[in-house]
Amino acid sequence: MKRGIVATVTAAAALVLTMGTTGPAQAAAFIKVNSDNGCAQLRFYTKGEHLYLEDTCRDGRSAVAFIKRTGNTGGGSPHLENRGYGKIGHWNKDWPEGRRVDFMVCTLKGRDFEDAYYCNSRNNVVV
Fold first, then answer.
1. What confidence tens digit (pLDDT) does each residue in 52-80 have?
2. What is the CATH number of the domain that holds 69?
Protein backbone atom coordinates (compact mmCIF):
# COMPACT_ATOMS: atom_id res chain seq x y z
CA MET A 1 0.00 0.00 0.00
CA LYS A 2 1.07 3.58 -0.56
CA ARG A 3 2.21 5.60 2.44
CA GLY A 4 -0.64 7.51 4.08
CA ILE A 5 -3.36 5.07 3.07
CA VAL A 6 -4.99 2.77 5.60
CA ALA A 7 -7.90 0.56 4.54
CA THR A 8 -9.99 -1.43 7.00
CA VAL A 9 -12.83 -3.82 6.22
CA THR A 10 -15.22 -4.04 9.13
CA ALA A 11 -17.24 -7.14 8.02
CA ALA A 12 -19.23 -8.88 5.26
CA ALA A 13 -17.89 -11.78 3.27
CA ALA A 14 -19.41 -10.38 0.07
CA LEU A 15 -17.56 -7.06 0.40
CA VAL A 16 -14.90 -6.48 -2.20
CA LEU A 17 -12.21 -4.01 -1.20
CA THR A 18 -9.17 -3.81 -3.44
CA MET A 19 -6.30 -1.47 -4.06
CA GLY A 20 -5.42 -0.47 -7.61
CA THR A 21 -3.01 1.84 -9.33
CA THR A 22 -4.72 3.13 -12.47
CA GLY A 23 -7.88 5.01 -13.34
CA PRO A 24 -9.57 7.73 -15.33
CA ALA A 25 -7.21 10.64 -16.06
CA GLN A 26 -4.81 9.77 -13.25
CA ALA A 27 -2.36 7.16 -12.05
CA ALA A 28 -2.98 7.00 -8.32
CA ALA A 29 -3.90 4.45 -5.68
CA PHE A 30 -7.60 3.76 -5.45
CA ILE A 31 -10.00 1.75 -3.35
CA LYS A 32 -12.83 -0.19 -4.99
CA VAL A 33 -15.94 -1.14 -3.01
CA ASN A 34 -18.94 -3.09 -4.36
CA SER A 35 -22.46 -3.35 -3.00
CA ASP A 36 -23.29 -6.81 -1.63
CA ASN A 37 -25.10 -7.78 -4.86
CA GLY A 38 -22.31 -6.36 -7.05
CA CYS A 39 -24.67 -3.92 -8.83
CA ALA A 40 -23.06 -0.73 -7.52
CA GLN A 41 -19.34 0.01 -7.48
CA LEU A 42 -17.49 2.91 -5.86
CA ARG A 43 -13.90 3.75 -6.78
CA PHE A 44 -12.18 6.25 -4.51
CA TYR A 45 -8.90 7.73 -5.74
CA THR A 46 -6.88 8.92 -2.77
CA LYS A 47 -4.86 11.46 -4.75
CA GLY A 48 -7.22 14.37 -5.27
CA GLU A 49 -10.11 12.62 -3.51
CA HIS A 50 -12.04 11.62 -6.63
CA LEU A 51 -15.14 9.43 -6.23
CA TYR A 52 -16.56 7.40 -9.13
CA LEU A 53 -19.87 5.58 -8.59
CA GLU A 54 -21.07 3.14 -11.26
CA ASP A 55 -24.37 1.34 -11.82
CA THR A 56 -23.17 -2.12 -12.92
CA CYS A 57 -26.46 -4.06 -13.37
CA ARG A 58 -29.57 -3.75 -15.52
CA ASP A 59 -31.90 -4.20 -12.55
CA GLY A 60 -33.88 -0.95 -12.46
CA ARG A 61 -32.08 0.19 -9.32
CA SER A 62 -29.69 3.12 -8.89
CA ALA A 63 -26.24 3.07 -7.32
CA VAL A 64 -25.84 5.05 -4.10
CA ALA A 65 -22.85 5.56 -1.82
CA PHE A 66 -23.04 7.05 1.65
CA ILE A 67 -19.84 8.95 2.49
CA LYS A 68 -19.01 10.26 5.96
CA ARG A 69 -15.85 12.04 7.09
CA THR A 70 -14.58 11.89 10.68
CA GLY A 71 -15.97 14.80 12.64
CA ASN A 72 -19.15 15.14 10.56
CA THR A 73 -22.43 14.20 12.22
CA GLY A 74 -25.27 12.18 10.73
CA GLY A 75 -25.36 9.06 8.58
CA GLY A 76 -23.22 10.41 5.78
CA SER A 77 -24.00 12.33 2.64
CA PRO A 78 -25.54 10.27 -0.20
CA HIS A 79 -23.95 10.27 -3.65
CA LEU A 80 -26.40 8.99 -6.27
CA GLU A 81 -25.93 7.67 -9.80
CA ASN A 82 -29.44 7.26 -11.21
CA ARG A 83 -28.92 7.60 -14.98
CA GLY A 84 -28.96 3.84 -15.54
CA TYR A 85 -26.76 0.84 -16.25
CA GLY A 86 -23.17 1.59 -17.18
CA LYS A 87 -23.30 5.26 -16.18
CA ILE A 88 -20.61 6.62 -13.85
CA GLY A 89 -21.07 9.57 -11.52
CA HIS A 90 -17.98 11.61 -10.57
CA TRP A 91 -17.35 13.83 -7.56
CA ASN A 92 -14.11 15.75 -6.94
CA LYS A 93 -13.74 16.28 -3.19
CA ASP A 94 -11.34 18.58 -1.39
CA TRP A 95 -10.93 17.00 2.02
CA PRO A 96 -8.28 17.79 4.64
CA GLU A 97 -5.45 15.25 4.86
CA GLY A 98 -5.29 12.70 7.68
CA ARG A 99 -9.05 12.35 8.19
CA ARG A 100 -10.93 9.05 8.09
CA VAL A 101 -13.61 8.64 5.42
CA ASP A 102 -16.31 5.96 5.80
CA PHE A 103 -17.93 4.38 2.72
CA MET A 104 -21.10 2.32 2.35
CA VAL A 105 -22.21 1.29 -1.16
CA CYS A 106 -25.79 0.20 -1.93
CA THR A 107 -28.44 -0.07 -4.63
CA LEU A 108 -31.55 2.07 -4.44
CA LYS A 109 -35.11 1.44 -5.67
CA GLY A 110 -36.91 4.75 -6.15
CA ARG A 111 -35.79 8.06 -4.70
CA ASP A 112 -36.00 7.49 -0.93
CA PHE A 113 -32.54 6.86 0.55
CA GLU A 114 -34.17 4.73 3.25
CA ASP A 115 -34.95 2.22 0.47
CA ALA A 116 -31.28 1.37 -0.01
CA TYR A 117 -30.65 -2.37 -0.44
CA TYR A 118 -27.68 -4.73 -0.66
CA CYS A 119 -25.51 -2.36 1.32
CA ASN A 120 -22.05 -3.58 2.13
CA SER A 121 -20.71 -3.18 5.63
CA ARG A 122 -19.27 0.26 6.26
CA ASN A 123 -15.54 0.42 5.57
CA ASN A 124 -13.08 3.27 5.73
CA VAL A 125 -9.82 4.79 4.57
CA VAL A 126 -7.59 7.57 5.92
CA VAL A 127 -6.88 10.24 3.31
1. 999 999 999 999 999 988 776 666 789 99
2. 2.60.40
